[in-house]
Design a protein that fits this description.
Number of helices: 11
CATH architecture of the largest domain: 3-Layer(aba) Sandwich
Protein name: Putative dehydrogenase
Strand content: 15-25%
Number of strands: 12
Order of helices and strands: EHEHEHEHEHEHEHHHEEEEEHH
Distance between the termini: 47 Å
Keywords: Oxidoreductase
CATH topology of the largest domain: Rossmann fold
CATH superfamily of the largest domain: NAD(P)-binding Rossmann-like Domain
Structural class: alpha/beta
Organism: Saccharothrix variisporea
Number of domains: 2
Largest sheet: 6 strands, parallel
GO molecular function, one term: nucleotide binding
Helix content: 40-55%
Pfam family, one: GFO_IDH_MocA
Strand order of the largest sheet: 3-2-1-4-5-6
Shape: globular
Length: 299
């Protein structure tokens, strides 16, 4: 990679805060990708973002898909799932946001489309692309003997800041937005999550969950986006016969995590690889956990 003709031409679907902060600069700056086209439901937002990076504005998703090798998504899950199924069918590689869809049925349809097309897919599970996270997960696997864990993701993101005006986040809440991150790391640390043992959401939007893992470990997750904590609390820890370990955050930014994701993505496309620890099947697994949690909580 590096020669312009060999760069992946990537279209960006979405032009909201996360697209501006992470996707667009990441795709424009990465040596293996070129941001060539932008489509968003608000044409003026798409135009503003595209202009910043010398990309074209697509009139609709079909026009965007006709000009690119890959598509990155930064839109609500139900919008993503519909366009991503079509993109995969056209042989386009996918960078997907979490959750990958709004229902398990749609997530299954998307995973099937990706498998049938043989395209590369990655889900933006940001912390999994921080080197410190993978190093710690490798150490945990090597040591073994972990019997339990807990994740606490406590933010005021729906009260203030760039995502406070996001309708889908208000509608779906933390279980869909930050839940996938928490479940992904607990699952990777303690073994595959096999069951949501209990789930409750309070009137204030505070989720409390209990999870069962393959191999017998159990964990808890506390999630909220409506408590004005500054700074927010993001902690994941495990414990067992070798003591108590809390995942360290060495300050790898979301932007750097996204660059690391693109490193993997470009390498997958280059080598024809379609499997990855954070591919579409991971997204489907997390979607099933979300749906089971909603059922147990009665929402």
């Amino acid at each position: 990679m590096g020669v312009v003709d060999e760069q992946l031409r990537v279209g960006l679907v979405g032009a909201g805060p996360w697209a501006k902060l992470v996707h667009a600069p990441g795709l424009a700056d990465h040596p293996g990708t070129r941001l060539t086209s932008v489509w968003a439901r608000r044409p003026e937002a798409a135009a503003e973002l595209a202009e910043s990076y010398g990309a074209t504005v697509a009139a609709d998703p079909d026009e965007l898909l006709s000009t690119v090798d890959a598509v990155a998504f930064a839109v609500p899950p139900e919008v993503q799932a519909e366009i991503a199924v079509k993109a995969a069918g056209l042989g386009k590689h996918l960078v997907l946001e979490k959750p990958i869809a709004s229902t398990v049925d749609d997530a299954e349809r998307l995973a099937d489309a990706v498998a049938d097309a043989g395209v590369a897919s990655l889900v933006v599970l940001t912390r999994r692309f921080a080197p410190e996270t993978e190093e710690q997960l490798a150490q945990l696997r090597q040591t073994g003997g972990w019997v339990g864990g807990t994740a606490r993701w406590l933010t005021g993101a729906l009260l203030d800041g760039p995502f406070s005006g996001s309708p889908w986040r208000h509608q779906r809440g933390p279980i869909d937005d930050i839940g996938p991150h928490a479940f992904d790391i607990l699952d990777a640390a303690l073994g595959t999550i096999t069951e949501v043992l209990s789930a409750h959401v309070s009137a204030s939007g505070l989720w409390q969950l209990s999870l069962a893992h393959e191999g017998g470990a159990t964990s808890t997750a506390t999630l909220t986006m409506t408590v004005p904590l500054s700074p927010p609390v993001v902690e994941v820890s495990v414990f067992g016969e070798h003591g108590y370990r809390q995942f360290a955050d060495r300050g790898t930014s979301p932007q750097q995590c996204y660059t690391n994701l693109l490193d993997d993505f470009v390498a997958m496309v280059d080598s024809g690889t379609t499997t990855h620890r954070c591919d579409v099947r991971r997204g489907l697994h997390l979607q099933r956990i979300i749906e089971e949690a909603r059922r147990k909580a009665g929402v």
